[in-house]
Amino acid sequence: MEKSQRHGADADPPGASLHSGNPKVSFVEALRFWALLGFISFGGPAGQIAIMHRELVERRRWIAENRFLHALSYCMLLPGPEAQQLATYVGWLLHGAWGGIAAGVLFVLPSIFVLLALSYTYAAFGEVPAVAGVLAGFKPVVVAIVAQAVLRIGARALRQRAHFLIAGAAFVAIYFLRLPFPLIVLLAGLTGLVGPKLWQQGFGSAGEPDEVSGADDHKVPQGAARAIRIGILGTLLWLLPLLTLTSWRGWHSVPAQAYRFFTQAALVTFGGAYAVLAYVTQSAVASYGWLTHAQAVDGLALAETTPGPLIMVLQFIGFLAGWNHPDGLTPAASAVLCALVTTYATFLPSFLFIFIGAPYIEALRGNLHLQSALNGVTAAVVGVILNLALVFAAAVIWPHGLLEATDWFAVALCGAAFVALYRFETKVPWVVLAGGLVGLGRVLLFG
């Protein structure tokens, strides 16, 4: 076994190459790439992973194909944004903890500032006719994006009758019974765990041999001292902001509530941004009253047009929570505070999952019971995303209620966007921008 393919207790010094025959990658060179990636990572998780594969494996040859796929398999088992976690993981493999921190932070950093600017424009000038027209064009496109996600994820996840039953039950639970998303995830996971025979065909790997190359290249670290140290540090990094917010604004203030709520959300984001958005929207609209369903649609549209992980839509929700409930601050100051608090709480667990869990997750691969539980969760996610699609469609197509007039402009634009995405596989940012231009043109031409 080559030293350059080991980590954990037997890890090479930071900077060791992970591709046979390739010279050592300097930290500065890697830093330049991670900074660039933060500005070009459009296209959602699939597009971002494709960019990293092309740049890291094919073009720069910093990491071998099997090593990249193995790292990706780790990240797919974790809650949170898998593309950002993959960048963190590869950065860690190349240059240790500081490499992982640099890669993970720079992957997100540009989108933080871009989305802050867009969120302020939306909140301050959203009623201006031209801005409102652009947003009116964005919204139907978002409905089409979520509908496409239902079909895409469903085609991969629902392969047996049991899968459809789980998805249907999850839809009923969240749409009609209003059960909380974490409870649905727990019940779906338990269903998969207690019935492994139902899931042996799984989602591509359960019941089949694990064909991921390089599975023997990883050593589980001896002893738990390293994991305990990181866990203590992570706990302190989480507690200090909470104590600061509580002493400054109060336990029941919106920033403190947002910090606690989005931390919880970060721990149940199996299924990606669409699944967590369904959960967050359910709570932020119904329980906290931070924003409306229509505003959540707008936030997803803005997030789709920015680089970085799609889960950045949560920052928009945090921004509006602060803007709508300034609680003694100016709306702008409260909004920025809540937005940054939301982003910090969303991504801190992702770093901890990588730095603590990655060396151990390999030991769980091929475990039928674990895969069965994950298969149950994945099936439930389809039903949860279907709920999101219907809620968003109702907010866009019948903005004044189901018994009121239908917005046929939204229906037509939604259909056109769906065809572009599903039939012609047009890139998401281009479809979103085209929808905005159509909405703007409608306002300019017809008022």
Mean pLDDT across the residues is 81
Could you say how many structural domains there are in total? Answer: 2
Q: What is the percentage of strand-forming residues?
A: under 5%
Sequence stretches where pLDDT stays below 50 over 5 or more residues: 1-17, 201-220
**How helical, in percent, are the residues?**
over 70%
Structural class: mainly alpha
Number of helices: 16
C-alpha-based Rg, rounded: 22 Å
Question: What would the principal axes of the Cα set say about the shape?
Answer: globular
Q: Encode the helix/strand succession as letters.
A: HHHHHHHHHHHHHHHH
Distance between the termini: 69 Å
The major pleated sheet works out as: none
- Report the count of strand segments: 0
For this entry, give a set of tags.
0% strand; 447 residues; single chain; mainly alpha; 16 helices
Structure description:
- This protein is mainly α.
- The protein folds into two domains: 12-108, no CATH class; 111-446, no CATH class.
- It is built from 16 helices and no strands.
- The chain has helices spanning 27-40, 44-59, 65-76, 82-125, 129-157, 161-175, 181-194, 225-249, 254-266, 273-287, 293-304, 313-324, 331-361, 368-397, 408-423, 428-446.
- Helix 4 (82-125) runs parallel beside helix 12 and helix 9 (254-266) runs parallel beside helix 13 (331-361).
Task: Provide a quick synopsis of the model.
The protein has 447 residues and is mainly alpha-helical. Helix content is 71%, strand content 0%.
SSE topology sketch:
Layout (H helix, E strand, L loop, with lengths): L26 H14 L3 H16 L5 H12 L5 H44 L3 H29 L3 H15 L5 H14 L30 H25 L4 H13 L6 H15 L5 H12 L8 H12 L6 H31 L6 H30 L10 H16 L4 H19 L1
Helix pairs in contact: 1-4, 2-4, 3-4, 4-12, 4-13, 5-11, 5-14, 5-15, 5-16, 6-7, 6-14, 7-14, 8-9, 8-13, 9-12, 9-13, 10-12, 10-14, 11-12, 11-14, 12-13, 15-16
